[in-house]
Write the structure tokens for this entry.
Amino acid sequence: MDWITLILSVIVVVISFHLIFAENNPYAPPCIRGWIPWFGAAFEFGKAPLYFIAQARAKYGPVFTVYAAGKRLTFVTLHEDFRTFFMSKDVDFEQAVQEPVYNTASISKGSFYKFHPACNALIKGRLTPGNTALLVSDLCEEFNQHLELLGDRGSQQLNELVRSVMYPAVISNLLGKCNAPGTPLSRQEFKKKFTIYDEGFEYGSQLPDIFLKEWASSKQWLLSLLVNMVNKAEENTYNESGSKTLLQHLVTTITDKFLPNYGLLMLWASLANAIPITFWALAFILSNPTIYETAMGQITSALKDKDKQKTHLSLDNLQQMPYVKWCIMEAIRLRAPGAVTRRVVRPLRLQNYIIPPGDMLMMSPYWAHRNTKYFPEPEEFKPERWEKADLVKNVFLDGFVAFGGGKNQCPGRWYAIMELHMFVALILYKYEFTLLDPVPNPSPLHLVGTQQPEGPCSVQYRHR
């Protein structure tokens, strides 16, 4: 038996080396293979994937492949190829994300392929600019309520402050007030569990639960929470205001046992990127006196002498603060996702290469937004660059790809922009802030979603 095991091991190693070190297809992009069978360049890539992408692009050119953990990741970095990435029929979004969806939300392959198109259409339809406007009043009320819980003065990490207000407010607005954590203890518990789940989401999408016990425990806690939320949504056709929440619409869309699991995905999508982008927008504004003064000028002019405790903010008020919206868009530009992906399903021609089926096609909005052709001084926070965009008509700047493209463009983008715009305006109108730390660098460790801060960023605040 020992000899059989040894022989089989040798065969596996030989085959692995042949697959990894075999000559490249002459039409394939340059490939970074590493030297360890199966793992390939996984260790080097995993140390700081954001930096790895930039270094590989400089060394190998605009299209290159990274062999890592048994997968071929082919990166495209030229804007002229992005339309192919988003629109080609030779690539597929659902096949690219199905396995991560299973790992992070325990949704079966069959269920995902059956219901994902309907879920995407549901969210896109319920969160159009017109429908988003109907959520403004209730969201403003929720933000006011939770901002007042900060008290007259205090100090804490800016990221934690944003989470403590936005988590319960957005849950109430999209999933129903009855589902929002209503006590200090429940809010604290939710923040702890969701933060663990969110910060470990990228690792959880690739590794079995057994290697991530604390993360897996938080996932199960959140799934149990969503079971309760779904039960309430099924019992109550309409929410307190007489309209349907996004969760109540989801209940009528998903007809299998994975309904709570889809609810978890929707919860994550509604919170995971909005909170860090809000942090970055506030940190950038507070760290630049000129930008802060300009933003406060518009906020004060639009809200005039409104009550500082129960500040009613309408869509018309937001439209009177275009500079604040520019700040939001500039924060999104600077902290866009590290990578988005599609699976190649048929041979795909890019530049002078042919990408084989099975490759994961990757594109980095983070690095795309540092192209000086589209964004001069790309590392600078310059809200005024957004004056050239027609944001009133929901038209972004050329070269901006933070929300993706094609039929799988972020379905909640209009809601996200509105909620960030509102939150930043409200909190700056109600509170004075002092930054106690310099603005931290973004962490280079993750590719999924918005970058988290690499270091602390404490603030002192005082109610106006």
Observations:
- Residues 17-23 have pLDDT under 50 and may be disordered.
- The chain has two domains: 22-106+339-368, 108-337+369-463.
- Residues 335 and 386 are 16 Å apart (CA to CA).
- The longest helix spans residues 213-235.
